[in-house]
Amino acid sequence: MDVGVFSTQPYDQEGLGLANLERGHALTFLEARLGPDTAELGARFEAVCVFVNDRLTRAVLERLRAGKTRLVALRCAGFNNVDLGAAAELGLTVARVPAYSPHAVAELAMGLILMLNRRLHRAYARVREANFSLVGLCGFDLYGRQVGVLGTGAIGTAFCRILRGFECRVLASDPQPNPACRDLGVEYVSREELFRRAEILSLHCPLSADTRHVICAESLAQMQRGVMIINTGRGALIDSGAAVAALKSGQIGYLGIDVYEEEETLFFRDRSQEIVQDDVFMRLLSFPNVVVTAHQGFFTREALANIAETTLGNISAFASGTGTLYRVPQ
Questions:
Q1: Which domain holds residue 230?
Q2: Active-site pick, 25, 199, 234, 261
Q3: Where are the alpha helices (DSSP H) in the chain?
Q4: Domains of the chain: total
Q5: Per the count of CB atoms within 10 A, which of 82, 103, 119, 180 is most buried?
Q6: d(C-alpha 117, C-alpha 200), whole Å
Q7: pLDDT, tens digit, for every residue of 56-75?
Q8: Residue 121 bears catalytic tag
């Protein structure tokens, strides 16, 4: 198939190119994101391969369908950036990578907890400046702490296993409790009880109408003062303005985020020579108890290889009508 690969980084080109050696698709790598301004370009391809910050609205999908495009191949697990209703009406197939490495994201979430708790980011900077004082770096034992996990799919379950290794008390909330988590000793509770009891809360649920801004002023008011919140899911799970207010008041004691709701204008590019125009994001960076990483939860060698193999497998299955196609239900 003739495939336009949007939002391409060097590692995408390397991984997808390797996975394509035995498949023989015509891959055109494009740095541009797919959206209203680039839909005309996308319409030239039989398939478009997109990532988390490409925007496939109804208008974009209509333009793609009016051209040559018949397949949208997501090289990620989430699909909140695609208007699935419009895709179904237009007869466009949407495929995704349902699982690439849940361990990669879960391990980063644990890394954020350790960094925030033991102030590793601050300690590193101090020592490099020959400041060996420990004042202000005191953390707490994770042993016995009550950690809440919102969403226990593959990533949430991998995260629960890590927490049990630290001998944390693990609470979880999910509309479909996972038997594997119950076997680990995870206690399932309502979302409200999770917010009330968790000393640390980690978000591993998909972004949907029900979970958009699940962390907001109202839910934050239900939590323990000084709660630690970790988000390696989707940026819009957290109302960033409400998070800033809660950090200022002390309601949030620690915040670790690998995703941000307006990240599409920031992440995956070197902007070190620019003036960042997002005031809310810059306000978040000003807090000493906030750690931000630039959507790198997926970024391990194993995950990249799995993403490339599954993405090219989806394209081949669609083209041939045989093999496994991880179609997104529409």
A1: 102-292
A2: 234
A3: 10-19, 39-42, 58-66, 84-90, 102-117, 120-128, 154-165, 179-183, 191-197, 217-222, 240-249, 279-285, 301-320
A4: 2
A5: 82
A6: 10
A7: 999 999 999 999 999 999 99
A8: no
